[in-house]
Design brief:
The chain has one domain: Alpha-Beta Plaits, CATH 3.30.70. The protein is about 35% helix and about 30% strand. The radius of gyration is 17 Å and the shape is elongated. The longest helix has 26 residues. It is an alpha+beta fold. The chain has 4 helices and 5 strands; from the N terminus they run αβαββααββ.
Length: about 160
């Protein structure tokens, strides 16, 4: 399982790779998302990554598989009363471009077998067949995109990626 610190550092690094993101926050629940979004200025683009949930599948004690589900929001803070249909569509389009940039970076890391840094090691576990993208409309006063991806690992010990 990915360590919380490693996960946070991964998304902070993504902010450097995709500079159109204004701020990054790693959270564990919606209460933390609400607190964070209260401090976000109108027009700011944020990436909010929820710490992964973990499922196991075991045929026996020697054959345990770990699956981590990761939820990421790329949102633009906007007030519904100041927007018409074109405005929120523009927000979704601009955050979709950012979402595509983020996923492209993740896929590049997943295919990089030369690097040994913790970000690349974590992304080598990415399951590229299971990336799901949704539209977010006025989610806590934000519009944008969210996506879900999974990371797979064989065994509990092998899933520990430390920075």
């Amino acid at each position: 399982m990915v360590r919380a610190k490693t996960y946070k550092e991964f998304w902070e690094n993504m902010n450097l790779l995709v500079p159109s993101i204004d701020r990054v926050k790693v959270v564990s629940d919606e209460v933390q998302v609400q607190k964070f979004i209260k401090d976000v200025e109108n027009g700011e683009v944020i990436l909010v990554a929820v710490l992964p949930s973990v499922d196991t599948e075991a045929f026996n004690l020697d054959n345990i598989k770990i699956s981590e589900s990761c939820y990421v929001f790329i949102l633009k803070k906007s007030s519904e009363r100041d927007q018409d249909d074109n405005d929120w569509i523009n927000d979704v389009d601009s955050t979709q471009e950012i979402c595509e940039d983020v996923i492209t970076q993740m896929l590049r890391m997943a295919e990089d077998f030369d690097s040994q840094d913790s970000n690349t090691l974590m992304m080598r576990r990415l399951n590229p067949d299971k990336i799901h993208i949704d539209t977010e409309y006025q989610y806590m006063d934000c519009n944008g995109r969210s996506f879900v991806f999974t990371m797979k690992t064989e065994g509990i010990k092998n899933s520990n990626i430390n920075s």
